[in-house]
Amino acid sequence: MSFMDKWVEEADRKLISHVKESVSETVTGVFASSWDWFVGVLPDLTGYATLAAGAAVIISTAAGQGMIKPIGIYSCALITSICILVGV
Q: I need a surface site. Which of 3, 28, 56, 78 has the fewest CB within 10 A?
């Protein structure tokens, strides 16, 4: 290998590592911001889910389908959100 080939390979290696670092930092920042937003909005989402579950229970009971499935889905979502909020 000549000196120029080695020099070009080294320049390519530096460029690739720089691109990897900047992409990694950007993706990490986006995920961190998204997670912070999600945790901040989670109590509101849980409240809206409570209203939706109540409406689903009323409608399904009025239709004669029973209320076990909407309550089960709501309970699963509530337990998941409580685990996320306690873990943070």
A: 3
